[in-house]
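Worked problem 6 (solution included).
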Amino acid sequence: MKVQRPKGTVDILPADSGSWEKVETIARNFFKRANYREIRTPSFENYEVFSRSSGESSDVVEKEMYDFNDKGGRHIALRPEGTAGVVRAYVENKLYGPDVVKPFNVYYIDNTFRYERPQAGRQREFHQIGVESFGSNSPLADVETIMMGHDLLAELGVKNYELHINTLGNAQVRKDYHDALVNYFTPLKDQLSEDSQRRLSMNPLRILDSKADEDKQFLPDAPRIVDYLDEDSKKNFETITDMLEQLGINYVLDDDLVRGLDYYTGVIFEFMVEDKNLWESATTILGGGRYNHLVEEFDGPETPAVGFGIGEERLMLVLKEQNPALFEDEGIDFFITNIGEGTEMKAIEIARSLRKQGFKAQYDVDQKKLKQQFRKADRVHAKFVITLGAKELENGVLNIKRLADGKTLDLSLEDLNDMKSVMEKIED
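Solution. The predicted structure is:
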């Protein structure tokens, strides 16, 4: 039987996983500095968690979600995005209570699943980095979230990215806009794609996201939500954009931006990357917005919220092109070579001591010939080689060699107990 990974999944092998670890470490440290704490939710939830949040008419629910009945007859779905599970956890664990500081700020780094056509930067199992903030309706919370997305991309080394921003107003604005879209598309119904014909009665905003050629011809003349904003919505959006300008964060007002999930209200945004080496046109790398009614959908109290998500696979594609230093093999600090009777245990002890001091150290468990050990040290990109033989063991002196330039230094065994000081001498 030939065993292979399922279509739409990838193995992230050790040669690549180090780069993923670097990116995730940068993200974790970035979020922690803003006092966002990690949340971990199940990879699968009851189907209703995602159908209620994403919307029955969304592509995610209609076409892409992995769902099944488990052995107990429960309708289960694999997580297609991060927000819904976090909201469910927020409500179920009563994190809206008075004893929890607001806003309640969390981040996550999770694997997610969608039945999509696999392509570069898009798989059926993919990884999402995201943040969610619950409890504040202030435009400062929106600005904070957008600023975090902007600054995280900069810290990761992403180039040529552009913020696209729009607003969906409030519930009344959405209703008025909904009615306007229905009035516009209804006479054209027979010319729309099957999906859009169905969405016309369920959620006409979804038509604006259509990639079907039958629909595209009608989109330029479709009503724009900006024409339906009330004064409060306009004022709120202007406050956000004014703050972004003051922060030096450039943006594009994008009337076509609607986002692919039904739970968004208020400001929505995407950061798009222009890189001809990767894509013909600008491509979204980070997206998010405000969703003030999703907690209520899960039978929680009225709770404003805002957040964003990053597709990590697409992010890694961009970084490999734009910040290749993240993908360089950093190697290890020390490789301990040894030869001669009685040196094996000392080599192990030295490696153990160095590791306790915070260094990356390895020795040859196969105890090959010295020449082969040196070759292995080079292959694992060791910065230094420590050589230990029977004579060195007897005299309590050993040699350390820097492979980059061949610089050597004789050390006593006692020196190994404070290698940070030794390293300072070598660097001098």
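Discussion: Residues 14-33 form the longest helix (20 residues).
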